[in-house]
Amino acid sequence: MGVDQEGFTKLYEALYPRVLAYSLRRVPPDDAHDATDETFLIAWRKRKQLPDPALPWLLVTARNTIANQRRRRDHQDVIAAELARCGEHAALDPGAAVVERTTLLTALATLTDKEREALMLTEWDGLSGRDAARVAGCSAVAFAVRLHRARNRFADAVTKLDSRLHDGRDLAASTHSSAKDGSQ
Fold first, then answer.
1. Where in the chain is CATH 1.10.10.10?
2. Residues 135-172: tens digit of each pLDDT
3. SS (H, E, C) the chain
4. Where in the sequence of the chain do the CATH 1.10.1740.10 domains occur?
5. What are the CA-CA distances from residue 134 to residues 104, 120, 131, 137, 148 (Å)?
6. Which of 45, 22, 19 minimizes the C-alpha distance to 145?
7. What's the topology of domain 94-184?
8. Rounded to whole angstroms, what are the CA distances from 121 to 74, 82, 124, 125, 135?
9. Within 13 Å of residue 110, how many CA atoms lie on the same side as its CB?
């Protein structure tokens, strides 16, 4: 089919309510609006290749967008649980809290400014993807890509730093143990 700007505007006006209704049946209102907006952003980018009729394609795109939202939310839940775990450890061992805080700050420092901003807007400030994209001054789709990359790089950095830390602890523990054994 393919549509020009005027055709896309008509398509948007005619089908936005139906795609939104589809999304609202699957997720809470804020998420439904985000998914529908992202669906039409994708449709705009692919407007030259849109099939006729466009509604089934839009609904599949909305379904995929909602699935991506759920994966992001699951990932956020893992991060929140990890941060809660860090908080529990802080109460038990202030030294461990310092090490974990240093690890997190060092991992954040490995990100680009835009990636760090994306992560902080969503994880620290609690903004939705759509709102965070507005703050960052980019499209929701561009922001989603940026956030995905930021999360992956952050997780990789934390894993690397943790493994180095544990390797250092193991080395220090074995050195300390060997020194004790040698002195007896």
1. 94-184
2. 888 999 999 999 999 999 998 988 888 777 666 554 34
3. CCCCHHHHHHHHHHHHHHHHHHHHCCCCHHHHHHHHHHHHHHHHHCHHHCCCCCHHHHHHHHHHHHHHHHHHHHHHHHHHHHHHHHHHHHHHCHHHHHHHHHHHHHHHHCCCHHHHHHHHHHHHCCCCHHHHHHHHCCCHHHHHHHHHHHHHHHHHHHHHHHHHHHHHHHHHHHHHHHHHHHHC
4. 1-92
5. 26, 14, 5, 5, 17
6. 45
7. Arc Repressor Mutant, subunit A (1.10.10)
8. 17, 18, 6, 5, 8
9. 18
Tell which CATH classification among 1.10.1740.10, 3.40.50.300, 3.30.450.20, 1.10.10.10 matches the domain 1-92: 1.10.1740.10
Q: What is the pLDDT of residues 9-44, one digit of tens each?
A: 999 999 999 999 999 998 889 889 999 999 999 999
Place of tokens 């080395």: 171
